[in-house]
Amino acid sequence: FSTFQWPNPLLNYADRQLYEGPVDILAEGCPPRNDSTIPAQWLRIAYHDMSTHNVDDGTGGLDASIQYELDRSQNVGEGMLASLNDFNGFQIISPFFGMADVIALGAIMAVAGCGGPFIPFSAGRVDATEAGPPTVPEPQQDLASHAESFRRQGFTPTEMIALVACGHTLGGVRQVDFPLVVTDSATVLQTFDTTPAFDTAVVSEYLQNTTQNPLVVGPNVTTRSDFRIFSSDGNATMQSLLSPANFNQTCSSLFERMLNTVPSNVNLTDPITEPFEYLVMNDNPSRTVTLLWADRQGLFCPPSGCSQPSNSTENVFFTIIGQMQEVTATRYPFNATINATSSISKFWFEINENDGSEPITVDNGGAGFVIDQDSVFVDVVRTERIVAHSGPVSEEFMKLVVRENSASSGASVASFTPSLNANPPFTPTINTTDLQLDASNPPDGKFAFFTANISFSATFLDLTISSANSTITQKNFDLTAVNLPFIFTSL
Ligand code: HEM
């Protein structure tokens, strides 16, 4: 059992992205693209985005500023645009999980997808709104400039050697983008080593003098930057990286630092190294899991009881990260009816293995899973996604239904919709709409229904209701975590 405290929307969301996808689907099996691989492209963009960091003043780092830096020659390559399009296409950017977090997650999936080590994931990066300085190292620069670039980014000369070797085990150099490095125009891409996998081939082929790495043996001596870097300590670091165990361990910890290099005013979560959102246990078909709750007065409910056994079990399908860690989990769904008058203040669970052992209580470290307020919430049963047709014209929107039980003077919803742009920068849209009394749903008990039509593709909502003396908000309601009905109708 982990020490995770609910609610923590960022950690919850980051955990779900790492262990349930969907980012890994494009990295699994190290799939080829543009004569390189998708993971090679994802790993390179993470390094280039981080390269703006300056340890001296704490600015720059992994902040998605790359979205504004694509026109620079140091960021040449179709992998850059393709990667950003991949990341935006997942539509997982949320109010607290921006493009920079997706770039970091992409690098983690990239390394794992090509057979490399697990890199612990921290989330909470903040997306830049403009370009950073042009500080990506380039092949024609000398060793001293490279050492200074890496120092500025927070890495020692020895770490520079390892970081470049770890990066250049994937992918290669494209002829059209670097014609001075790869001079033979019949070559589309010259790989750094003979295997697409994340492995030590880049090191062993270099040490055996069989390497075809164009940044080591390319015809143009000026652009042999990998040669200058790899040999800068008499090959001592490269020798140490020959051991696959040491290579994996060194690359994992350097990549973790690379991905966690952020502006000094940004705080990241603790690293996620296990799927803490789940109770990972051995399979026991006789196990029962019961949801229990207390009413709004904090009392455990009277005779009939406030408890509900789980109604089924579902297998959790883990990403390549979960598969690599060999974790398995079962999800226990519930369908509980809460009395509208006595309501709910907190809930918890009891797990009974039914094998004679004491049942276990799961109660968020003693506090219970506390429901802050029950004055306003999204009615997921009445909310629906609507596709309305009239001849060739079609309109898509979401009919949001909100319940509220206070005598409010105004209610509004701010909806967050990930970017549907074709090109970067992929900035989300946030719209604020007033909620109106819902004529189609008469009041029920002390609850009234309010409604608004919002974007079909909205993923997160903040609800606000104000009355004469208070404002109540329900922040970060995750529409992607609920299954809303689709309604097809005519306009
Ligand atoms: C002095 C430092 C470095 C220089 C001069 C350098 C240079 C280059 C060049 C010229 C390419 C070819 C890009 C293309 O044709 O699209 C490349 C590719 C690549 N670099 Fe670096 N690099 C450096 C450091 C790093 C580091 C630290 C990483 C760590 C993540 C990294 C990861 C990659 C990857 C994965 C590719 C392959 C991209 C693909 O195949 O699409 N590089 N690098």
TrEMBL record:
Transmembrane segments: none
Domain Plant heme peroxidase family profile per the UniProt entry, residue ranges: 33-248
Keywords attached to this entry: Heme, Iron, Metal-binding, Oxidoreductase, Peroxidase, Signal
Top EC class of this enzyme: oxidoreductase
Cited InterPro entries: Ccp1-like, Haem_peroxidase, Haem_peroxidase_sf
GO molecular function, one term: metal ion binding
E.C. designation(s): 1.11.1.-
A biological process from GO: hydrogen peroxide catabolic process
Pfam families the record matches: peroxidase
Homology family: Belongs to the peroxidase family.
Protein name: Peroxidase
